From TrEMBL:
InterPro entries the record matches: DUF1285 (IPR010707), DUF1285_beta_roll_sf (IPR023361), DUF1285_C (IPR048342), DUF1285_N (IPR048341)
Organism per entry: Onishia taeanensis
Ranges for domain DUF1285: 22-88, 91-176
UniProt name for this protein: DUF1285 domain-containing protein
Transmembrane regions: none
Length: 186
């Protein structure tokens, strides 16, 4: 007896289209298993111990990636859900553009997002990251971090009652932190 899967035409439309993000929030298939796929901290994708060299394939896989409340990353289709490994953040910010008081960031898989109230930099392990979509985040690549630091200003913030200097930038009228240091410089 054949297995009756939901039609995959909607997914094929995303694959063949312009790289749009499918509606993963609407897909809730059961866990299919674990895939030997790892997104390394340097942003490279590895499958079965070999790097994935085809950029279009990485982009396609990135569009069906979701991080769930359990902190685990999954590749999701309407009928399958595969657990994968992610060493740090799923994506890297590889470019930043500033225009009219707004910073636009680009990820290593081609996503573009505006630093604003919905996409705010946060300090995780003292390295800024920014939410992208579906629980996924992007870590600032070193060259982008230094580019933003060149444009940064400092402000005094209170962290647990102790004043600290915070380095950051403003984008779309929202303060975006890049790092903290104590008033004494220690």
């Amino acid at each position: 007896m054949p297995i009756n899967h939901p039609p995959l035409e909607p997914l094929l439309g995303y694959i063949e289209g312009d790289g749009a993000i499918p509606p993963l929030e609407d897909w809730h298939p059961p866990l299919s298993g674990e895939m030997d796929l790892c997104i390394r901290a340097d942003g490279r994708w590895w499958h079965e111990g070999e790097p994935i060299a085809r950029g279009r394939l990485v982009r396609l896989l990135s569009t069906i990636l979701r991080r769930e409340d359990d902190g685990v990353h999954y590749l999701i289709t309407p009928v399958e859900k595969w657990r994968i490994a992610v060493e740090d953040c799923a994506f890297l910010i590889v470019d930043a553009d500033h225009q009219d008081g707004v910073w636009t960031l680009t990820t290593n898989v081609g996503d573009r997002l505006t630093l604003d109230g919905d996409h705010r930099l946060s300090l995780d392990q003292d390295i800024p990251s920014v939410p992208v979509r579906f629980g996924l985040a992007a870590r600032l690549h070193r060259n982008v971090y230094y580019r933003l630091v060149e444009q940064a200003e400092s402000r005094t913030v209170n962290e647990d009652g102790a004043p600290q200097q915070e380095l950051g930038i403003e984008s779309a009228g929202v303060w975006q932190p890049l790092g903290r240091f104590s008033e004494e410089g220690t």
